[in-house]
Amino acid sequence: MQNWKITLAYDGRKLCGWQAQPGVRTVQVETEHALSTLFGGERVVLHGSGRTDSGVHALGQVGSFVAEKERPPERVRLALNALLPEDISCLAAEHAPPEFHARFSARGKTYRYLLDDTRVRSPFWSGRALRLRQTLDWDAFDAALACYRGTHDFSAFQGPPSGPPRRTVRTIETCERTVMVGPHGTVHAVTVVGPGFLRYQIRIMVGTALEVGLGRRDLASIPELLALGPAGTRDAAGRTAPPDGLYLVAVRY
Asked: What are the φ and ψ backbone dihedral angles of 124, each rounded to 5 degrees?
């Protein structure tokens, strides 16, 4: 028996998220099918570092699985890329210690949310970034992002739970905006780093900061919401930003 660690990248536009679901394409289903073929028909169960939702992308999602048959790591990477559909790629495959688990061994994650500020709609960012259609006050937006940094109770910034109730106190190590100017226009990247996140948390954080930047919400409302602790309610925060612009960049172990 060999424990494996693989790193995947995927374009989430035509995928219904990570988690296996009947009758739809998901990252877990597509990758398990390819792994089963690669390992001679073994039933392979792939564990991810976390679940990405429908439409969310990944540049460095990590998965782990156990297989009985032995395969060279480089062959696993090459063979997986031959077997996987075009919107999923295996970046690396390696043997892992027996105790390694993609989810339970993770110590932090980096996410990035892309905002397309190009004046003329670019076909290259469609489904890969949220296109801004109004002028944003970027100083106000940055001030809103700064409110999230540190340790807070994010009860007001979580979507409906998909399982048992989770701890709502989270630490945001980094939450900042950078600007990328390229041949396909100007894109603002919001990078968020922390040990772990609640369901939809980053998308709600971005959606609320956008409301501040658009002048639809007072900046003071964000620290007020965070100060409410468990009494914070979802309807008091801003809209959930679409999944198009969200990327899981890397997982820290």
From this structure: -75, -20
- The total of other beta-carbon atoms located within 10 Å of residue 225's CB is 23
Amino acid residing at 128: R
- Domains of the chain by range and CATH? 2-95 (3.30.70.580), 108-252 (3.30.70.660)
Identify the weakest region by mean pLDDT among 54-63, 145-154, 182-191, 239-248: 182-191
Residue 175 · residue 149 · CB < 8 Å: yes
Helix pair angle (201-213, 138-148), 10° resolution: 140
Active-site residue, from 11, 53, 116, 137:
53
pLDDT tens readout for residues 155-211 = 999 998 766 678 999 999 999 999 988 777 789 999 999 999 999 999 999 999 999
Find the helix packing angle between 27-38 and 73-83, rounded to 10°: 120
Q: Are 114 and 192 in contact (CB under 8 A)?
A: no
137 catalytic residue (yes or no): no
- 8 A C-beta contact, residue 192 and residue 146: no
pLDDT higher than threshold 70 for residue 82: yes
- For the chain, the maximum distance between any two Cα atoms, rounded to a whole number of angstroms, is 59
Give the tokens for residue 198: 């609640």
DSSP structure string for 241-253 = PPGGGEEEEEEE-
Q: Are strands 108-116 and 130-131 parallel, antiparallel or unpaired?
A: parallel
Residue 56: closest CA among 198, 201, 247: 247
SS3 215: coil
